[in-house]
Structures are given as structure tokens and as C-alpha cells.
Amino acid sequence: MAISNLLSKKVTKKLKYIGMAATLAISIGYAESAKALIKMNTSGTWTEVTGSPYNLQGLGTDKIRWGKSTGDGKSSYTFTGLNDIDLKLDGSRFLLGEFTHNNRPITDGSITGANLALNFDIQGSDSQTLDLFFKHDETANGPNDRTERYCGEILGYKRRLCPDIVELPKTRSLDKIVIGGEKYKINLKFQRIIDGEPAIREDGTPIYTARFKTKENKSNKAKLFARLTKVKRRVPEPTAGLGLLAIGTVGTFSLKKKNKQSVEKN
């Protein structure tokens, strides 16, 4: 076997071990950072709406109101942030805040959606803001509307009031947030609050949903949860510079051999 080939194989093997060790170190680092407790504060403001709401109020604050009251006030959205949240990077859900839809019977136009600028004030990191668009379906309650999408049975001109529907944006429509130099995708879910308690199944597990049915003429509350998924970044293979290194090694050996031959001839 040529000495140049032997040297090249030894260098390749060494670099392979170095690359494996580096990859392992990075993986351990990621795992440790995921276990570390990071604190965060959240807040939100409603920045814009779609639709043709009557007498819209509150843009730029944490509460917007709209609609012409039929006797029970205007409808509204409120977001209440939290302080000292444990930001979880292990893929489990964590609480961001509380969403409230005061669903009132209104007339003369409603929103069809609203944008919440959700601010993340993360410990040891720059403050970041995500724009979250809440889709709103204002179901009609008049006696001439015979739609049964979300309502019960219609009996003549009398029927149950229809709940509205609030939908969270899909993950793919969201920006990513950066924590400790790593990018994360965010997935959001509601957990409805019923009689003051978060909705759970019979076995005690939480009920999460992206579609929140809000009862008419009620103050409907839900907790807003998030789950972060790290955007995988490709770790370079430890073979990137092997070709050049091997060429350099062979070249150096060839030069030494040539110089030795020249000395012998002289």
C-alpha cells in the first residue's frame, strides 16, 4: 500500500472520530438547554381587524369591542398575558395567557378576524413579537336566518342562539421565534374554561382545540397554550475538508520524496 494512501486513511479516520465527538457534544448541549428553566413574560395587543365592525374600539390595546348592542353590550376580545412563565423547550405545552370572548347579540356589522401582536419577553434574550390572526365567525341570531351550522333545531321563529366560532392560526402560517440562537416553530391551542375550571376528559387529560365555540350572551374564556418544536439544523458531515486535507498530505509527502531523490542524484 502506498504511504500516501495510508496517511490519507489515518487522517480520514481521525477526522471522523473528531466529527462524531463534536456531534455528540452538540446533541448533549441541546438536551441540557432543553432541560434548563427559562422564564418569560407575555403580553398582547390587538392591532387590526377584518370585516366591517360597527363602532370598533380598542385597537392598540389588549381589548377590542365592536357591534351595536341589542341590550347586553358590545362583543369583545381580550388577551391577558402572564409573568414568570416557565418556557419549555422539551416539546411539552406551556401556558401563554388567557383569551376571553364576550359574545353578545349585536347588529350592524362584526369582525371576521383580528390580529393579536403577541409579545414574548424572554429571559436572556431580545423581546420578540408574533402576529397571530384569530379567525372569527359571527353567526347570525335573527329569526329569518335559518342556518343550522352551529345551532340547534329551529322551531318556527324561535330557536337557540348560535355560538360564534374563534379559530387559531395554523402553525405553518406563523413566524418562528429564536431562543438561545435556535429557531422554534410554535403550535397554539385553546383549553376552554368551563365553570371556572379548564376542560378535561374523564381520565383527567386536558382537552385542547384550535376551534373555540363561544356561547351567545356569555363571557367565554379559554387558556392559550403553546408548544415549541425546534427547527432542525443540519450538522455538517466531518468529511467536508477531507479531500483538500488528503491532497495536501499527499502533496507534502511527494515533495519530500522528490527532494530526497534530488539529493541522492547530487
Describe this structure in words.
This protein has 266 residues and is α+β, with helices and mostly antiparallel strands. It has one domain (28-230). Helices cover 21% and strands 39% of the residues. The protein has two helices and 15 strands. It has helices spanning 3-35, 242-265; strands at 38-51, 63-66, 68-69, 75-81, 85-87, 94-103, 106-107, 111-122, 128-137, 164-167, 177-179, 182-194, 197-198, 211-214, 218-230. Strands 2, 4, 6, 11, 12, 13 and 15 form a seven-stranded antiparallel sheet that branches. A hairpin with a 5-residue loop joins strand 8 (111-122) and strand 9 (128-137). The radius of gyration is 30 Å and the shape is globular. The model is unreliable at 17-34, 146-150, 154-158 and 240-261 (pLDDT under 50).
Please outline the helices and strands:
Elements lengths: L2 H33 L2 E14 L11 E4 L1 E2 L5 E7 L3 E3 L6 E10 L2 E2 L3 E12 L5 E10 L26 E4 L9 E3 L2 E13 L2 E2 L12 E4 L3 E13 L11 H24 L1
Antiparallel strand pairs: 1-5, 1-8, 2-4, 3-7, 4-6, 6-15, 8-9, 9-10, 10-14, 11-12, 12-13, 12-15
